[in-house]
Design brief:
Blueprint: E1 4-9, H1 17-27, H2 29-37, E2 41-46, H3 50-63, E3 68-74, H4 83-91, E4 103-106, H5 111-115, H6 118-125, H7 145-156, H8 166-176, H9 179-185, H10 187-200
Parallel strand pairs: 1-2, 1-3, 3-4
């Protein structure tokens, strides 16, 4: 029986791991609360770079073998294969022989979650925010990574908080996002929530 949930997510540098962990913690709070209600330990691990996150996940499989270990990483491109196969092709990683529910993708990058909730972006950035600069697509996962980041920068460059950067703004925005809105427009985010919810209710 699973006693702990450990999620290794891509992001957080030497000086930012704590704040980005707090941001993800707030966004994933419904799952955290469910885990605690079931008497399970809940832990988020900011992995840093993409490769470092994968290595920490692999070590977690060895040192926390009784936990349900989950890798959460940017897909970096359109997803046309199951998660592990996508990462094997995308990054040439020697992926573990585990079920798909141990691996989840932010498609095509975490910023898709931000764009999925433009109302929150507008409130956060305030005057000068250019909502029309964001792609008008119901499926944010279909937006290429470069286009997504460029549109965020264009939408925010004239605001008091300044142009979007992951280091300065990402953690604050994650805290404020409406999970239901994001899940509606980002299929893999919704799948992540549903998978964890099912595992936590076992």
């Amino acid at each position: 029986m699973v006693k702990a949930i450990r999620i290794y997510f891509e992001g957080g540098g030497r000086f930012t791991w704590r704040t980005i962990k707090e941001g993800f913690g707030e966004f994933l709070d419904p799952l955290r609360q469910l885990a605690r209600s079931r008497g399970l330990t809940w832990d988020l691990i900011a992995g840093g770079s993409r490769n470092d996150t994968f290595e920490k996940f692999r070590l977690g499989l060895e040192h926390h073998s009784k936990a349900f270990n989950v890798l959460l990483a940017d897909s970096e491109s359109r997803v046309e294969l199951p998660c592990w196969k996508h990462l094997r092709r995308q990054d040439r990683w020697d992926v573990p022989d585990l079920p798909e529910d141990h691996c989840h993708l932010m498609v095509q990058t975490m910023e898709a979650w931000l764009v999925a909730d433009p109302d929150t972006l507008a409130r956060y950035y305030g005057q000068g925010f250019r909502r029309k600069a964001l792609p008008d697509r119901s499926d944010v996962e279909a937006i290429p990574k470069d286009q997504l980041l460029h549109s965020l920068e264009r939408a925010t460059v004239g605001t008091q908080k300044g142009r979007y950067t992951k280091i300065r703004h990402c953690s604050d925005l994650l805290r404020l996002l409406n999970q239901d809105r994001v899940r509606l427009r980002a299929h893999h985010c919704d799948l992540f929530f549903k998978t964890l919810e099912a595992r936590l209710r076992e």
